[in-house]
Amino acid sequence: MRIGIAQGQNIIGCIIDEQSKPMPFANVVLINRADSAFVSGAVTKDDGTFIINTDKQDGLLKVSSVGYVIRYVDAKQGNVGDIVMQPDTQMLREVTVKGSIPTHKLTAEGLQTNVENTILSKLGTAYDVLAHIPGLQKNGDDYSVFGKGTPIFYINGRLVRNQTELDQLKSENIKSIVLVTSPGSRYDASVRAVVKIKTKLPQGEGFSFDNRLVYGQSENADLIEQLNINYRHRGLDAFGMLYFSSSEGFNRADIEQDIQADTIWHQSNTNDYNYRHKWLGGEAGLNYVINDENSIGFRYNIYQQLNTDEYDTFTSILTANGKPYDKLNNSSTFQNRATPMHSANVYYNGVLGKTTIDFNADWKQTDKTYNSAYTETSEDFGNRLLNTSSHIKNRLYAAKLVVGHQLLGGNLDIGGEYTNTHRNDDYVNPEGYLSSNFIELKDQNMAIFAAYTHKIPIGTVMAGLRYEHASFDYYANGCYMKEQSRTFDNIFPSLSMTAQIGKVQGLVSYTAKIRRPNYSELNGNMSYANRFTLQVGNPFLKPSIIHNISLQAMWKIWSLSADYTDTRNDIIDWTEQQEGNTAVSILGKKNIKSLKNVSAYLVAAPKAGFWHPQFVAGLSKQWLTLQTASGSIRMNAPIFLGQMANTFQFTSTLIGDLTMKFTSKGDDKNISLMRNMFQTNISLTKTFFEQRLSIRLAGYDLFHARQKIKLYNQQMQLVQDNSLDTRYAEITIRYKFNAARSKYKGTGAGNDEKRRL
């Protein structure tokens, strides 16, 4: 028997599969013998155990899980022991073949993809696996959720603060991935999508090493070197990581600006931007597992930007009412000098009786200085030499506590979160072309929340409520600015229900969220492109309130997701002309009243021998009418998405991958995509010596996709044709010895505030 807790008014037990492995997320329902009426229910935990609170002395347990035959078991109050489930061979023929392809199911939070013992476990890293999760889209080095934007990532309940962690986690160590497209009240109200990665149980004692070397070649060479070290003895886990990266690249853009004012201004610009970045980082921590249900730990991270050199040339030809006006050549250099970035996390994660406790406290500090030097020559109006210096210092303290308890046959989570941020932003231009400012920001956010989950006969219902109080104090040149300072009190409800009818699984949900402006968007300092193009933040920006209704469904190899979103006070890029000189464009941000959007995508994941394809078809359509100086402009053209991800299992040690992605023309806020984009990535991974050594060859953006956009503003329309350094080849060599994974379970606090910084 696996359970040894007090029994009382409970029916307890453990659900296992045909190989005696625990089965998490199985549905266990207590029904009357006479009429099969629903009495109570539960969902099994990660270890397969369940507890049903009931006053009935006996009844009939109905146990179900996707891909397994439903079982009915006589039960009385007390411990019913292990209940063994048998695979539904008919369903397995339709959905999966002996675990060789990933299987999907809808949980109370979202779509879960099983990775363990599937072909996804052989792709390389979590970074490679995520590109095959339905609903996740890979965009360069980042990921987005269709219709929801950039998600946050968790590994075993711990927030991923640096995206390199996704590339550090080996795919063979991943058990499952859940994509949460309607996060509940437990998450920051700004979080619109969450990716939760769960790893397999850690194994191995003593020292382990994992060394990774990545070499990439595009127009320039990139290099990553990483060493992970772990020591494990019984409950003690000590871990460390050293990381070095060097990257070079360029962005090239042709920009046409048309300004309709008392004078018709036209700028024809060519912008070449080159950069060279070097980073050195490290991580160290301790974790102690007291027992199977309680652990404590500490983690410290440090990153140092060794060298950041950026070079920019901006050539502009100006005409006024069709006649030549001026030609500018602007060359600039940027240097970033920073002290090390520090962050730390302490946590306790455990169970006391029937109560779960998750506590985290975080600290983060950054200190950077940006120095810029501009040399601008003009054919007709004199030259300029301009220097700017920006010194930004951030300090963050945060804490979060979540307490869970069984209540009335369900689970109740209650908790609170507090963040305190202090930011100094000093900006100096000695020549006086731009205003020098000394900005100080103080931000406090306090939240309390509750979420309740309860089993119903056909599925699970989850309801949550989150209250947030935020105060924002803005100081300029030592003076408190009352108009820019604000206080907010918001309530964010959430409601979701999962259901299974026959072989169809469904999830419907509603959430209210907030999108607070980043500090860079609130910055009132003005940056310089040339004397006719300036950029500034907007300290008067309001937060955006987002209402979302989401529907997900699964049947056999098919999955469907659809969303309706209404964003109040949405934030868009917006350009206005300088008062008294309409030739000067000031790029900034502004709020619009509302932006409504519908998005949907359909996924099919069949199997044909060694070929494992995944087909995705989707669309996103918004409803937006802009009021500009030239009249109303309707921005309603839909964007269509198509993707074909192909994985080939040639042998047990040789895996190939070919992904092709299409994005159509269409409208996104006040930007029109003017060119269809096709992207193609390919990779081949070979393992040796019982998977201790792996070599991966990859090519990205093989046909060098180019992006062309049109930006609509008050008096200006801008067309920008981008050529980015995205086509490159890469080789990754990884060697591991006695690999063991950290048991660290800290989730972090103040996560939304960290992203704003």
Structural class based on helices, strands and sheet pairing: mainly beta
Helix content: under 10%
Low-confidence stretches: 1-8, 89-100, 740-744
Query: Based on CA inertia axes, which overall geometry fits?
Result: globular
The total beta strand count reads 47
Binned strand content: over 45%
* Integer-rounded radius of gyration: 28 Å
State mean pLDDT (0 to 100 scale): 85
Q: First CA to last CA: what distance?
A: 50 Å
Q: Count the helices. How many?
A: 5
Q: Largest sheet at a glance?
A: 30 strands, mixed
Task: Give a description of the structure.
By secondary structure, this protein is mainly β. 3% of the residues lie in helices and 67% in strands. The chain has 5 helices and 47 strands. The strands form 6 sheets. The protein has a 30-stranded mixed β-sheet that branches. The protein has a 6-stranded mixed β-sheet with strand order 8-9-14-15-12-13, with no helix packed on it. A 4-stranded antiparallel β-sheet has the order 3-2-5-6, with no helix packed on it. A hairpin with a 6-residue loop joins strand 35 and strand 36 (611-623). The longest helix has 7 residues, at 89-95. It is globular, with a radius of gyration of 28 Å. The chain starts with 9 loop residues before the first strand and ends with a helix. The relative contact order is 0.12. Mean pLDDT is 85; it is low at 1-8, 89-100 and 740-744.
